[in-house]
Amino acid sequence: MHHVLAVSNSPLHKLDNYSGLRHGWPRLPLPADPDVLAASAELGLEVARLLDVERSQEGTRESSNRLPRRLGVLESSGAVSLDPQLGGLGIDARWGLLGKDGVCMPGPGKLVERRYEPEETSAIEKSAKEQGLTLEQAVQLLGETTYDVYLNDVAYWRNLPASVWKYTIGGYQVIKKWLSYREKSILGRDLKPEEARYVTEMVQQIAALILLQPKLDENYRRCKDNAFDWSALDT
User: Fold this and answer.
1) SS (HEC) of 93-117
2) What is the rounded CA–CA span in Å between residue 152 and residue 166?
């Protein structure tokens, strides 16, 4: 299972198997070498930890040590306090709209695209080194610009790299989809502090997955080059 996660999350595998994935029939190479398979499974375990939304990464030493910092930090504009008791965490930036028959539809929301601040670049460089990447490679993966994503006129999550903000699973933009269902007019309440912190965790986990992509591609190449020859079973 973890081998499958490692291979299927490789961008190169998705490119090579575009047609199969579109028709729900992807091809997954099974390495003939047990050591290659074991290494792939170990990498897939790291992917599984990062995809597990029920597992706090802060309490997971193996994953939390590699999570990029200074991403998705909750802040307020100006000197306004983010007091949950005073509506500071209410989402009313039109991320979610009620459509026909009460179906929740994604709205335009409010976000500001900008360049990285120096301290944000330094944090990315530190995370890049932990993954064996240069700063230039990390920025190429994460995107050259970043976004500040607003809950309301005051509160916002600071520094969501472009690739993190646009990251999709199953065809849906992950963070934008999450926000659409938490619009105050739809949810019926403000966010709880732990829910606001969850967005920060989600941003950092997605960023870690993106920074893992070169290793995932390398693993896929190794598995493909050492793929088991199924035709040998016919002889």
Assistant:
1) CCCEEECHHHCEEECCCCEEEECCC
2) 20
Contact, 77 vs 156, CB < 8 A? yes
Token couple for 164 = 């993190």
SS3 letters for 120-175? HHHHHHHHHHHCCCCHHHHHHHHCCCEEEEECCCCEEEEEEEHHHHCCEECCEEHH
Q: Are 182 and 104 in contact (CB under 8 A)?
A: no
Higher-pLDDT residue of 131, 180:
180
Q: With CA atoms as reference, report the closest residue to 47 among 197, 169, 179.
A: 169
- Say whether pLDDT at 64 is over 50: no
The predicted model gives 202-210 an average pLDDT of 96
User: Looking at the predicted structure, is the pLDDT value of residue 102 above 90?
Assistant: no
